[in-house]
Specification:
Order of helices and strands of chain A: EEEEEEEEEEE
Largest sheet of chain B: 7 strands, mixed
Shape of chain B: globular
Number of strands of chain A: 11
Helix content of chain B: under 10%
Distance between the termini of chain B: 37 Å
Order of helices and strands of chain B: EEEEEEEEEEE
Oligomer: heterodimer
Strand content of chain B: over 45%
Distance between the termini of chain A: 41 Å
Helix content of chain A: under 10%
Number of strands of chain B: 11
Number of helices of chain A: 0
Shape of chain A: globular
Structural class of chain B: mainly beta
Strand content of chain A: over 45%
């Protein structure tokens, strides 16, 4: 069974800071890892998808890395803005287990 | 390009009743997955449909059932509702069942009283 842990559970930072959100998992036999953003009471917005053969993906101010050997992924957010305030979730898909989400990191960026 | 759509947006039901939620996948997608998200938790996988068959199932009782139609849209049915079924129900679509990116709909908020 895949276990996914996200640290920290909550984060409050001033605008402009660079951030690192962590996602760790127990089973390295994954198809892919996907990072999502969720605003309160809303659906999930896909941010980045990393296939199991890839090490990182970048989109604008976001960079996600994947290290299967250590069971870790990080989401780096550069120059954070108040509009980045949301919950960030990582999810793993694999052949031997069901798609599994972490509980998320709740981010607040204050002006 | 239409994204994933879900209906209804909100729903209030009484304990013991039955409910049906609907999902239309993103254009070009053939796989639909359903998730339950309780407040403060990550989404929990209910099941996945591909080619009109249930392909994977999470740890949910048989009260939760589904269907996929030839046009790839899907329904989630929950029978004998319990107070604990109150949650945000999310639908996700993808192309294929394995390594492809999932796109989520806005969700249906179900409240059981």
């Amino acid at each position: 069974k895949q276990e996914v842990t996200q640290i920290p559970a909550a984060l409050s930072v001033p605008e402009g800071e660079n951030l690192v959100l962590n996602c760790s998992f127990t089973d390295s036999a994954i198809y892919n890892l996907q990072w999502f953003r969720q605003d309160p009471g809303k659906g999930l917005t896909s941010l980045l998808l990393i296939q199991s053969s890839q090490r990182e993906q970048t989109s604008g101010r976001l960079n996600a890395s994947l290290d299967k050997s250590s069971g870790r992924s990080t989401l780096y957010i550069a120059a954070s803005q108040p509009g980045d305030s949301a919950t960030y979730l990582c999810a793993l898909s694999g052949g031997s287990y069901i798609p599994t989400f972490g509980r998320g990191t709740s981010l607040i960026v204050h002006p | 390009d239409a994204g994933v759509t879900q209906s209804p947006t909100h729903l209030i039901k009484t304990r013991g009743q039955q409910v049906t939620l609907r999902c239309s996948p993103k254009s070009g997608h053939d796989t639909v997955s359903w998730y339950q998200q309780a407040l403060g938790q990550g989404p929990q996988f209910i099941f996945q449909y591909y080619e009109e068959e249930e392909r994977q199932r999470g740890n949910f009782p048989d009260r939760f059932s589904g269907h996929q139609f030839p046009n790839y849209s899907s329904e989630l049915n929950v029978n004998a509702l319990l107070l604990g079924d109150s949650a945000l129900y999310l639908c996700a679509s993808s192309l294929g069942t394995g390594q492809y990116e999932q796109y989520f709909g806005p969700g249906t908020r179900l409240t059981v009283t």
